[in-house]
Input
Amino acid sequence: MMNSRIFPIIRKEFIQVRRDPRTLAIILALPALQLLLFGYAVTTNVDHIATVVFNQAMDGRSRDFLRAFTNTEYFTVVGNVSSHSEAREAIDRGDAKVAFIIPPDFSRNLDAGKPAYVQMILDGSDPNTASTALFTASGIAQSRAAAELQAAMMRVGSARSVEMPIEVRPNILYNPSMQSVNFMVPGLIGLIIQMQAVILTAFAIVREREKGTLEQLIVTPIKPWELMVGKIAPYVLIAFAQVAVALAVGTLWFQVEIAGSLLLLLGLSTVFLVGSLGIGMLVSTVSKTQTQAMQMSMMVILPAILLSGFMFPRESMPALLNYLGYFIPLTYFLKILRGIVLKGVGLEYLWVEALLLTVFGLLIFGISARRFQKNLE
Output
């Protein structure tokens, strides 16, 4: 008797699931997407660290010394600069994480048995990458120094004391103490802003559709664009308030000082919010239920967490995932956040990211608005 009552319910649920193929497809696809992203993107290894070189010696010995770094695959030389200021600018722009500066007397000092000092400038805003680069560089320098020391002792004799021939002198910028909180807090601000903007917007519209109140609004004299603006405007204000609250908590509670312009940060945050709200609208136009909206929002947010450089360095990811990260707005906003908050740089270094965010925001918002109005007509 009990089975005769249970099986009809089970059959009804299977029929209901079959009638909602979109939700079923998302449910089945999401675990595969999560596994692929986590399997390839989540890694504690740090390699292929973007590096620039200012080699003032320009001889075979200095090139051999630099080759010892690139052969490890921990460092990837992305450019050669011609001055200290160019090396610093490359790190300010975020084009490089490390700069090696070899003095002009590098080889002469080694030949004379004197110490040869190599300066290493590090971007300390990412403590994990900076500590790996520093540890690896120190190990390589010690290995090369030991080889030079052995050769020098053979030349002068073991009875004479010989100084350690090569020494790497690090200069850690932006976050000298290499505290992880200084790196994580700006990233969390960007991630929380995107999550809230996408989910709030998507749920607000889908909730209206589920309750049937959206259809009631459609039959009123209100125009589609007026309805869209009316639905979105409150969440623009809410999202902007979230930006202010997140910055206040990060500054007052976690003691992460904003080194750059607060006005510039708020302005570019607004640009990022436009794109995030557009994503939320787009999710709402293709979702019929709140469950679908949540699942599709996660399919947007999850790649942003893993592929944007929020937690894991993008340089260490496979080439395909690294390339996909360029299509995620959070990738550029994180660079803006960390550039302004930690480095104190201005628009002259961040204009490319600001331009890309603006283009993306206008494009995705325009597509979402068009789909929203089309669904209402």
